[in-house]
Amino acid sequence: MRNTIDNITRGLSNIELRDTLDCVVMTLLDTQNRIRETKDFINNAMELKRRKENKFIEMNNEMLEVLRLEEEAKAKIRALKMKRESNV
């Protein structure tokens, strides 16, 4: 890219104009790099958010499974109590 800038500005006789153009092009390149970095940052943040959401869903499913097992255990205890009472 540096060579391209030099080729464009080499033909300019006005040194001040050449320096200004060089500065503008370098600023544009810097801006382009910052945009890329920002896009990468946003993509990483979105991926992290997606992972956290998936982890939350997993935890929620695990909690529901624990509650289901707890209800099954309570039902078995009730059944055993009823069976014991009917045997008495």
Walk me through the structure.
The chain is an all-alpha fold and 88 residues long. It has one domain (2-87). It has two helices and no strands. The longest helix has 73 residues, at 15-87. The chain is rod-shaped and about 110 Å long. The mean pLDDT is 89.
Write down the overall mean pLDDT: 89
Helix content: over 70%
* Rg of Cα set: 34 Å
Number of domains: 1
Number-wise, the strands total: 0
Helix count equals 2
N→C terminal distance: 93 Å
Biggest beta-sheet profile: none
Helix and strand composition category: mainly alpha
Shape: rod-shaped
| Sequence of secondary-structure elements | HH
Uncertain spans: none
Quaternary structure classification: single chain
How much of the polypeptide forms β-strand, as a percent range?
under 5%
